[in-house]
Automatic annotation (TrEMBL):
Family the entry assigns: Belongs to the universal ribosomal protein uS15 family.
GO biological process, one term: translation
Domain Small ribosomal subunit protein uS15 N-terminal: 1-59
PROSITE patterns, per database record: RIBOSOMAL_S15
Region described as Disordered: 1-33
Name assigned to this protein: Small ribosomal subunit protein uS15
A Pfam family recorded for this sequence: Ribosomal_S13_N
UniProt xrefs under PANTHER family: RIBOSOMAL PROTEIN S15P/S13E, SMALL RIBOSOMAL SUBUNIT PROTEIN US15
Length: 156
């Protein structure tokens, strides 16, 4: 992933195996997977954590390496179908959480210029991501403010 606000190069990661069918050793019923996804979401887990838990713990002891291959739907699609989806996309919500933490830190440590810049960069990413999601995943009228982000975190 390339770094947006630095001159450094991005760090390469591993690629998922190129396959279009679920492995035969993971023969869990799609409905069981969907119910487990909804159950984990109700416990307060984000879609990325749900995927990790299904990979590591599995459903009824059988690992699920790829939810989309097993069910034909992404984790977020399953959550939307069962009205368990979050109001904001996970990446935007996580950035807002970081911005709130940084702003609280800045309130106590006004001379911390590194974190001041980090806050500026984070809020810049939030605005850029909000433009990407606006009208589709989030409301057309959405504009980022610290108060909105703090309120969002208080609701959770």
């Amino acid at each position: 992933m390339a770094r947006m606000h630095t001159r450094r190069r991005g760090s390469s990661g591993s690629d998922k195996p190129a396959t279009d069918e679920n492995p035969e050793w993971s023969d869990v019923d799609a409905e069981d997977i969907e119910s487990r996804v909804v159950e984990l979401a109700e416990q307060g887990h984000d879609p990325s954590v749900i995927g990790l838990k299904l990979r590591d713990e599995g459903v009824k002891g059988v690992p699920v390496p790829d939810v989309k291959l097993a069910t034909g739907k992404k984790v977020t699609e399953i959550l939307e179908e069962h009205d368990a989806a979050s109001a904001y996309p996970e990446d935007l919500r996580k950035l807002m959480e970081r911005a709130v933490r940084l702003r609280e830190h800045m309130a106590e440590n006004g001379q911390d210029y590194q974190n001041k810049r980090s806050l500026q960069n984070t809020e810049s990413k939030i605005r850029r991501l909000a433009n990407y999601y606006r009208g589709d995943e989030i409301d057309e009228e959405f504009t980022y403010t610290y108060e909105l982000a703090a309120e969002l975190l208080d609701d959770e």
